[in-house]
Amino acid sequence: MRYGPFTCIVVAALLLLTGCASSGSTPNGSFNDDDVMFLQMMIQHNGQGIRIARLAEKRAVRPDVTTLAAAIDTTQVAEVKTMAGRLRGWHKPPVALAHSHTAHGGMVMTRESEITKLSTKNGPDFERRFLDMMVAHQDDALQMARREVATGIDPQSKGLAQRFIKSRTGEIDQMLKFLGPGAGPNASPNPSTNPSTNPSASPSQSPGQITDKAQAGQ
What we know:
Elements: H1 5-17, E1 23-26, E2 29-32, H2 33-59, H3 63-89, E3 109-110, H4 112-118, H5 123-151, H6 155-179, E4 196-197, H7 207-216
Antiparallel strand pairs: 1-2, 3-4
C-alpha cells in the first residue's frame, strides 16, 4: 500500500507527540523509551522526596536525622536538574502525561494523604513516621534505578541509575539504624508505615509544580 504525503506528515506528527517513543537519537546521544521513562518518573519521585525531606528538616528530633534529611533534599534537587537537562537535550518533557507510562508499570509514589498526615505530626512520632515513609520511598527509587540499569541504553542515564542505587542503599541503611532492630520497608503491613503506592488519586501538587519547585530549590 502506498501512502500519500499528507498521511506521512500525520504519522510523523503522532510520533513526535507520543509520550513513549521506542527509541531515538539526537546529538546528545541515543536513548530508548525506558531511558525517557526512568528520567521522567524519577523527576516526579524526587520532587515528592524533596517535599518529605523538608518536613524533617524542621521537625526531626535527632540532629543526625535532620542532617540526613537536608542531604537528601540537596542531592535530589541536583539530580532533578541533571535529569531535566538530559530530557531537554532529547526534546522530551520533564514530566510525562498522566498514565503515559502505564505499560511500564505505572508511577510509584508515596500517597499524598500520608504526606499530609505526616505534616501534622511532631517530635518522636513524626520522626519515626518520617523514617518509615522515606525508607519505603527510597526503596521504590531503587527498583526504578535497577530497571533502568537492566533495560536502558543511554550510558549517562544508566550511570545516573547506578549512582541512585548506591546513594539510596546508603540512605536506607542509615535510616534503618535510626529506626532500630526489625525495621525495614516491608516490616509492617500498616499502610502508614509503608505508604508507597501506584496512586489513582490526584496529588496535592501537579507534576509540573513539583518539578518547578525542585528545580528552583524552593
